[in-house]
Hints:
By secondary structure, chain A is mostly beta strands. Chain A has strands at 5-7, 10-14, 19-24, 31-37, 43-50, 55-58, 61-66, 71-76, 85-92, 99-101, 105-110.
Amino acid sequence: SQQGEEDPQALSIQEGENATMNCSYKTSINNLQWYRQNSGRGLVHLILIRSNEREKHSGRLRVTLDTSKKSSSLLITASRAADTASYFCATDDNQGGKLIFGQGTELSVKP
Amino acid sequence: EAGVTQFPSHSVIEKGQTVTLRCDPISGHDNLYWYRRVMGKEIKFLLHFVKESKQDESGMPNNRFLAERTGGTYSTLKVQPAELEDSGVYFCASSRFRTGDTQYFGPGTRLTVL
Lengths: 111, 114
């Protein structure tokens, strides 16, 4: 079964800096989604990128997808303390709808 | 539009007891999913409903877990009897379409089995 792996597992930066998180997966996908989880809260959907797309933007977020390398990256520009959270990638293999999640990256943005 | 809601937000029970978790999906979303995150591990799929039918229950860990979605609206996930390793956060998600669609997650139910 496919499995997402994220790197780094933890990232600590200063406010204003950019944060880059990477995700790798093993099998063919239909799309890849990024989610954020603030401490003790639910998962918030950030962005969905389809397998035929290479890059997508949403506000301060930029997601890239390289299907040849089976990897994706999430870039958060001009980070804020409120961006402190866990970030997960999840893939949809177009088999039935279930998402396969990565281990997540713990991002800490210091004011 | 109201989001996915889950009840309760927290549950603390003793080993051997029964707990029932509830999920109300976004109105009009035929697809409903259950996931869980056990401490320190990744979020894992449990099962998927399309309306009231179980589309995929390959992630259900064992027969102590029973999920229902009578009428195709809200869903319940019952754990009976609960074991220590069942502790974790149980998430529910819903989507309009089966594949290629955004899944919207609820806030989760934190289950602690003592």
